[in-house]
Amino acid sequence: MTSRTSRVFSRIKGRTTPAAWREPRAILWATAGVATLGFLILLEIFARRYAGIPGPLTEQAKETIFAPKPGPLYAGLALMMVVLTWRQRFVAVGAAIGIDVVFVLVRWAVDAEVADGHSFGNGALWVMLGYAVIAVTRRSGRERVLLLKGVGLGLLLAAGRKTGDIWLIITAKTRPTVLDQYVATADQALGNPSWLVGRILQATDPIGTHLLGLVYAQLAVAAVVVALYQLRNVGVEGRFPRHHLVRTFLVIGLLGPGIYMLFPVVGPVFAYGPGASGTGGVQWAVANLWPHTPPAVTAPHPMTYDGITPRNCMPSLHTAWATAIFIHTRKGPRILRYAGTFWLIATLGATLGFGYHYGTDLIAGVVFALTIEVALRSIDRGWDRSGVQFVAYGTMVFAALLVSYRYLPTQMAGHPWLFGPLLILAMASVIHRYVRITGLWEPKAAPAPQPDPRPELV
Fold first, then answer.
1. Which residues contact 222 (CB under 8 A, 6 or more apart)?
2. What percent helix, strand, coil does the chain show, rounded to 5?
3. Is 266 exposed, middle or buried, given 0-12, 13-18 or 19+ CB atoms closer than 10 A?
4. Among 48, 47, 330, 326, which Cα is nearest to 168's?
5. Inter-axis angle of helices 18-46 and 141-174, to 10 degrees?
6. Integer Cα distance of 343 and 215 in angstroms
7. pTM, whole model, 2 decimals?
8. Which of 198, 412, 195 has its CA nearest to residue 293?
9. Whose CA is closest to 253, among 366, 165, 349, 154?
């Protein structure tokens, strides 16, 4: 073989090495990272220019020194640690707690004021940033990439909470009018479920109220538990699974507030009641009706509301997130499947029972979650006809729901026997298609080989 031929074969062989095959995926990760950073920068600019508040990058940077909410940061640290060995995990947790103890002592010594619930959490952020430095300076190859992915996942979870909080403030400051009268009128096609569940929840007070309040407030904790189960083998296998709950959770939180801007709604306890969580009030409401007196069917119109209550109802992201948790627990052990089912049912009860959402919001939230889930799975496995058709169908149903809530609410309220079943059927059709398409995508177990029949002995 000539030297020239040898060089040709070596080039061909080099093109087919695993490293070469990993190049497109590395480009995809780099593109996603740049896009995320660009989005955060744009949100920073938008928050300062249009809402007069610091953006997510500024708020996250402040938490390196000032007391943060501990939950998101320690949840992010827990997700980051899936790429570490058990010894490294103990070191990381010990370092985070030690740093937090130092911060708490310094604040106590200088008598620094700390907001309620903001006591510690700096240590978790410092440890994640420290591992990012270690990945760049002390790791190489696959170890570096894996550690950077873990750090990125943890920081994204923490930044996602900041991004969501700022989005909610932006919706309140940039959308002075809300469309609650339209949604409440359309909701009569479903029988005003928020009013019904609200009365049931009040009848079970304080047990039912405390239980559902805990479930509603700790939805992110449930998501982290499920995600840790899904990612439990990352450190051993040296790679992340192709699809997991955190991706769906983050994308739902990223896209949902955009719909809030298009369809601002505050919820029945605000638009038809006294408000909650220190915002709203009867002076802003149509009337003090929730949950005992369903609103009358009248011609709806946009209404002005205060500048601090988030317009975060349409779609119900709590419903979308709980749906995602339910989906991702189906392959877990029995206790995890039961927990996922309970969390979905309890979240639906809480969103309605506390007056945070209308029934129409929940239907839109389920369709929203299933469409995103299939889109993310299609990106991983490669787009095919079934994936494209489902995403197109889910998007069409979601858009049709919003259009009908906005432009047909009076007709929906006047003919509940027609539009109520149609809304349920629309959601059920998306659920049916989801079950069918994901069933086709699941690998089929090969049948056990059967021994060849032996000729009978004569």
1. 325, 339, 343
2. 70, 0, 30
3. buried
4. 47
5. 20
6. 7
7. 0.86
8. 195
9. 165
Q: Which amino acid is at 212?
A: L
Contact between 401 and 358 under an 8 Å Cβ cutoff? The reply is no
Say which amino acid occupies 80. M
Compute how many other C-beta atoms are within 10 angstroms of the C-beta atom of residue 318.
21
How many angstroms separate the Cα of 191 from the Cα of each of 150, 272, 417? 46, 16, 10
**Which residues are CB-neighbours of 23 under 8 A, at least 6 positions away?**
none
Task: Give the ranges where 329-415 is alpha helix by DSSP (H).
Answer: 334-353, 359-381, 385-407, 409-414
pLDDT tens by residue, the chain, 458 residues: 444 444 444 443 444 444 444 555 566 666 766 777 777 788 788 778 777 778 778 877 888 888 787 778 888 999 999 999 999 999 999 999 999 999 889 888 887 777 766 677 889 999 999 999 999 999 888 888 899 989 988 988 888 888 888 888 889 988 999 999 999 999 999 999 999 999 999 999 899 999 999 999 889 889 999 999 999 989 888 888 888 899 899 899 889 988 999 999 999 999 999 999 888 899 999 999 999 999 988 899 999 999 899 999 999 999 999 999 999 999 999 999 999 999 999 999 999 999 999 999 999 999 999 999 999 999 888 888 999 999 999 999 999 999 999 999 999 999 999 999 999 999 999 999 999 999 888 766 545 555 555 555 44
